[in-house]
Amino acid sequence: MNILIIGGAGMIGRKLAERLARDGRLGEQAITGLTLYDVVEGAVLAGARVPVRLRTGDLPAPGEAARLVADRPHIIFHLAAIVSGEAEQDFDKGYRINLDGTRALLEAVRQAGYVPRLVFASSIAVFGAPFPEAIGDEFFSTPLTSYGTQKAICELLVSDYTRKGFLDGVSLRLPTICVRPGAPNKAASGFFSNIIREPLAGKEAVLPVADSVMHWHASPRAAVEFMRHAATLDTAAVGPRRALTMPGLAVTVAEQIGALRKVAGDKVAARIRREPDPFVEKIVAGWPRAFDARRALALGFRPDGSFEEIVRIHVEDELGGRIE
Amino acid sequence: MNILIIGGAGMIGRKLAERLARDGRLGEQAITGLTLYDVVEGAVLAGARVPVRLRTGDLPAPGEAARLVADRPHIIFHLAAIVSGEAEQDFDKGYRINLDGTRALLEAVRQAGYVPRLVFASSIAVFGAPFPEAIGDEFFSTPLTSYGTQKAICELLVSDYTRKGFLDGVSLRLPTICVRPGAPNKAASGFFSNIIREPLAGKEAVLPVADSVMHWHASPRAAVEFMRHAATLDTAAVGPRRALTMPGLAVTVAEQIGALRKVAGDKVAARIRREPDPFVEKIVAGWPRAFDARRALALGFRPDGSFEEIVRIHVEDELGGRIE
Q1: Interface contact B94, partner A, CB < 8 A
Q2: 3-state DSSP helix/strand/coil % of chain A, to nearest 5
Q3: What CATH number did the domain enclosing A261 receive?
Q4: Which residues 251-290 on chain B approach chain A with CB closer than 8 angstroms?
Q5: Which one of A100, A160, A171, A241 makes the best mutation probe of the B interface by having the most chain B beta carbons within 10 Å?
Q6: Are A144 and A262 members of one domain?
Q7: Do residues A21 and A154 share a domain?
Q8: Domains in chain B: how many in total?
Q9: Which domain holds residue B157?
Q10: Among A60-69, B40-49, B137-146, whose mean pLDDT is lowest?
Q11: Would the pTM of this model clear 0.95, i.e. be above it?
Q12: Nearest-CB residue to B139 (from A140, A144, A152)
């Protein structure tokens, strides 16, 4: 089995690639080749048990997607995207990469005349406030960003190309990924990870919203599992509605901090400094708080066990078990 | 006020144009020019009180949309589309006209740097079974045709371009138009109109489904009113969710026939021949039956008063009041 990861240098793409390369198989089948494609070249995977190829390019450029699927990868993970803030600032770039790039990929597969499994990374940004306390599987997509619009459009395309038999696609609406490794970023959602990651690394973190703010989270490890499960799932059970809200954990900031305290103690939890920011508070008030993701649960997708587990996953996977 | 109708040679486009040209005004404002654009040239409008220009072209062709909005029409009605059956048979053509054409129009407006009102004709085909008995305003779009997919995508684009301030758009999900004038067509939905139109013209009509089948209807006159209302509506009241399900009448085939009998008598109603067609029955079983269109009602859109009124509208507008 030959696998292509588009967005292979990104955070989830990289972790997914590491996992696949280490396992050497996916589901019942051995992996014969793994291609990591991105706009920038990813780092070489250490200890890979399968041949790994690194490729770079510009997905929506003419002929690019066709070249990418020329060796007919059995499974395509499409995780590449211009992120929300940038897509909002640069309207053309967002549509070009997030919509035209995805459409070029779908069309290249159709033209290649074979039917791979496609796992498309969508987002809860397809939803826009106001919404019910827990958003159900049949709630409508009314994105309030261009990024969310592009993801919602691609979900529709994936379903239509699937319905027509051109490919076998599934769109996964990922929760906010927490704890996101790396440096603190300026994204409005950054604090959800910052308040866990920074204190664990011995640094102070700023909390710009009230402790009562609730949000929908999944660990990077859970996200990788969603991808792997979607790649081997019996899609006959999914039916024609190919966009699935992934199960996450609805937790408040207070519960996040409580979990941090349990895992790392009072001293670490005390590194969070409250500094309310009305601008961030307003943005976050428009975000989903919780979902009722019963379709995905019925299809075997599994959320993290608890936010404590999410904290422990970060300590294990990113800090080698060591807390400052 | 300068008005552009894209799809001006189509059934609704034509009726809308006739109405606007006859009134010479829309809402508070006088119409200074009316351009009817279509892939084929429409017939000249008799008795127009405003200058009418007929143009033909291929909307998604490079530069075409830019030329079309070069004189900055204040109101753009976009009704042009490859219909459902053809978009399903010719995948490329459907996406090219219904998606790329619409996107080219939105982009041309953005590049022109002014903010017209755009009224986009969407469809209840954005919904796909299974659905609740009456589909509410927050029910999700899961189209089961490429046509429905293209309409759903365009709704998202119209909302995003509106949110960004590039135009002021509203998408109207039209009910099935009944009674559709002209020759019986082969569309699976054709019988809803055939069973009224043909008997009124002294001809026999075939009913391929059970009398208990319920569907969602609006007269051509109501559709024209939806368009006119959307063109002058205060869109601040619409908010960012720019796709609106138009109010129709949920009536069964039995109720349709009952209305025909009331308007035209037993002799006319007896011209309907029941000839169940399992193929059509299966298609129709996947269609929406009824909606709860309360957002549109609150915004002042009005359904036909009764199916009897729908029959009378056909007799008045298409038959000059005469029943065979």
Answers
A1: no
A2: 40, 20, 40
A3: 3.90.25.10
A4: none
A5: A160
A6: no
A7: yes
A8: 1
A9: 2-174+220-245
A10: B40-49
A11: yes
A12: A140
